[in-house]
Amino acid sequence: MDESLRTAARVGNISELYTLIHRNGNVLRRLDKVEFIETPLHIAAEEGCTRFAMEIMSLKPSFARKLNQQGLSPVHLAVEKGHKEMAVRLLEIDTGLARIKGKNGETPLHYISRFGNCDDLLDKILEASPDCIRDVSNQNRTALHMAVENKRLDVLQVLIGTLRKKDYYRETVNRKDEEGNTALHLAARNNQLKMVKLLLNCKADRQAKNQDGLTALEVAEQHNIRESVIVLRGFYIPLVSNFSHQFDKQIIKYATKASSLIFHDMENISEQGRNTLLVILGLLLTATYQTSLSPPGGVWQADCSSSSPGSKLIERRKSPGSIGTAVMDQSYFLMFYSLTYIVFIAAFFLTLALLKPFPRGIRNTLQLLLAFLTLCFDQSISTIAPTFLIAIILRTFSTIIFVFMLFMCIKYKVSKLSVSIVGCWIFPSFSLSILAGGVVVGAIQGFLLFLILYDEFGKEPCMDESLRTAARVGNISELYTLIHRNGNVLRRLDKVEFIETPLHIAEEEGCTRFAMEIMSLKPSFARKLNQQGLSPVHLAVEKGHKEMAVRLLEIDTSLARIKGKNGETPLHYISRFGNCDDLLEKVLEASPDCIRDVSNQNRTALHMAVENKKLDVLQVLIGTRRKKDYYQEMVNRKDEDGNTALHLASRNNQLEMVKLLLNCKADRQAKNLLKFQIGCTFPNWLHISTKSTRGE
Fold first, then answer.
1. Residue 533 contacts residue 564 (beta carbons within 8 Å)
2. What is the dihedral of CA 636, 641, 647, 651, to 10 degrees?
3. Beta strands per DSSP E along 79-189
4. Whole-angstrom Cα distance, residue 160 to residue 199?
5. Same structural domain, 320 and 441
6. Which helix (H) or strand (E) holds 19?
7. Within a domain: residue 383?
8. Given CB 3.0 to 4.6 Å as the disulfide criterion, which of 49, 154, 221, 365 pairs with 12?
9. Residues 221 and 279 reside in one and the same domain
10. Residue 287 covered by a domain
11. 513 located within any domain
């Protein structure tokens, strides 16, 4: 940041800000190019210069969501420094700022719980974003944990008061941190008697145990805190209390399930439907492009009765009749080609959207070709335009289309490559068509095309070795040191589709806190596959890091259905490597329907469990499937060789598995593709296997 701008932000000098903008119109824009950087809004928020901060917010609202090199947003800084008015004004502009996660995955609400409720700022944040009370840090701690840990009784009272009005209050009150401690455990350990009573009144679970197997009462007894022991013992029957908790837990579970069934997103279009649409869109692109080559009525020929002896440059066409231009009336030409533009661009966008599931190399190549086709379409229509005025009107229309494309690119994540190429062609055509000749316009367009293509294909980002080491040992301080040196140290990894990220390394090494820190900074990394085709959740399952996998699934349940190498999901990996510490139950709880996913060999988790002789996994899967209306269909699912799980169990001589599958209505008569499509039933295959074993 420019030192003059830093000084202006520190003292709140708005006049100096506009003086700097007058000298350099991009003085703020260049700060947006760095992912983690201290902006003037951070400085103003820290210093309490409210007017200056509001001025920056009106100029660059994106700064409010940026983290500085210490991992803090402007709202974090305002809360930390006790600038209530500053924080409130920022939240009035964007309520979503209340849920921004900074260093250690902490939100501004966590910061209030740590530093105290200055001038009732807590009430303002909860009013702006009531559900932010559910957010957890990288240590899996809620604002309740933070308030109890920092002995902020006033904060806890407000939080509890807010929670009582929510249907998820008991779930939040009994949330466990990474060590298995609830807020009640911490209150008991810190001898906070009023907090203990307050939490118990909010139905905190006395029977909840941490990772050491201790309840809050046992923690208090361990630290010899008599007052907390007396309150926690109270008058209750353990059996009744535990039954009540389990009953409420089941109600929450089924309520969540019902909600997911009602509001679940529509499934993606099928492969057959995608292919059909691509054919239709291809026909639309072809038909509309053909109109630019052969306009209705044709074009003026060399022997036409026109005052123009030859073809003219577009800017010299003052009246219709130039050689090679459309014969159509100007008004009809405008109406016809405006509609043609709309059809072509709509088909172009829909095609880009349908290409998203394709492999990166093929997708980028097709997007590039489609972008160039669009450029040819635009240039062709300009060439046949009857007059320069018509060409300018159409270029204005094409510029509006470009702005629309830019919006679509941001809003709906349509191909950045295609939009950039079309935009860099169309926009100079419009803005420079009057001011410069065709050669100048062409040179500028060519230069912009070179920059875009080089940025997309000419660079191959790789991970900094220091970042790799920090991820391997879980060094969060080193992570922020690297961010301080280069604010884009994480962003450039996003440009490569298949790459090993710091999250992959942290998952493999079991560095939970580091992984949660990365998740709060770059949640997109959780969906990336490394060069071996594995996501972070796959690696966590493979290495048996249960807590790591569970924490990721709590953040995003859909990670349970990410397909990696061979089309296998994390559930397939559990079926292969075993159910470490009941991880399977957690995955199925997060995403019950992931049990239906099949690999590239058309194998379900049942096939994998049987193939790898994991009886405990098969028992859990069968127990889950019995509750589904599609259980029989899935039990009898055939792989690419036509084998059901029952075929594999019989071949591997897994008697317990055979009995279990038969009890689950596995089809004894199902045939596989053994010996050139000749059907072989389960009893026949068992007979063949027995004979071959005897040497017959």
1. yes
2. -160
3. none
4. 8
5. yes
6. helix 14-23
7. yes
8. 49
9. no
10. yes
11. no
Distance in angstroms (rounded) separating the CA atoms of residues 97 and 100: 5
- 252 & 276 share domain: no
Please count the residues of the chain: 696
Phi, psi at residue 141, to the nearest 5°? -100, 135
Place of tokens 């679970």: 205
- Host domain of residue 358: 271-458
Give the N- to C-terminal CA distance of the chain in Å, as an integer.
Answer: 83
Nearest-5° Cα angle at 318, 315 to 321 = 105
| φ, ψ for residue 65, nearest 5 deg | -105, 0
> Looking at residue 161, which CATH number applies to its domain?
1.25.40.20
- 326 and 360 within one domain: yes
Name every residue whose Cβ is closer than 8 Å to that of residue 64 and which is 6 or more positions away in sequence.
41, 57, 73, 74, 75, 90, 93, 94, 97
Tell me how many domains the chain contains: 3
294 strand-pairing partners: none
For residues 249 and 277, membership in a common domain is answered with no
Tokens coding 209:
């145990």
Q: Which two tokens stand for residue 133?
A: 């009370």
At residue 247, what is the residue type?
A: F
Count Cα atoms within 13 angstroms, Cβ side, for 461.
18
pLDDT value at residue 357: 64
Q: What is the full DSSP assignment across 544-584?
A: T-HHHHHHHHHH-GGGGG---GGG--HHHHHHHH--GGGHH
**Contact criterion met (CB below 8 Å) for 587 and 553:** yes
CA distance 398 to 422: 10
- Distance CA(355)–CA(72), nearest Å, equals 37
Q: What is the DSSP letter of 225?
A: -
Residue 560 CB: number of other CB atoms within 10 A? Answer: 24
- Whole-model pTM over 0.90: no
Q: What is the pLDDT of residue 356?
A: 65
Nearest by Cα to 490 from 69, 63, 60: 69
Query: What whole-number distance in Å separates Cα of residue 395 and Cα of residue 193?
Result: 73
**Which candidate, 487, 472, 417, 485, places its Cα nearest to that of 449?**
417
Cβ(40)–Cβ(8) below 8 Å: yes
Residue 169 covered by a domain: yes
Query: Does 291 lie in the same domain as 146?
Result: no
d(CA 74, CA 46): 7
| Single-letter amino acid, residue 574 | I
Q: How far apart are CA 188 and CA 215, in angstroms?
A: 10
Note whether 166 and 302 are same-domain residues: no
* Cα dihedral sign, 418-419-422-425: negative
Q: Name the token pair of 379.
A: 């240039």
Q: What are the 10-residue block averages of pLDDT along the chain, 696 residues in total?
A: 87 89 84 86 92 88 90 91 88 88 90 82 85 87 91 88 80 88 90 87 85 87 80 57 53 46 44 80 89 82 50 57 78 86 80 69 76 80 80 76 57 53 53 50 59 52 76 88 81 80 90 88 88 88 85 86 86 84 81 83 87 88 71 81 88 88 84 54 48 39
161 and 47 in a common domain:
no
- Over its C-alpha atoms, the chain yields an Rg (Å, rounded) of 32
- Report the alpha-carbon distance of residue 686 to residue 647 in Å, rounded: 8
3-state secondary structure of 498: strand
As beta bridge partners, residue 475 has none
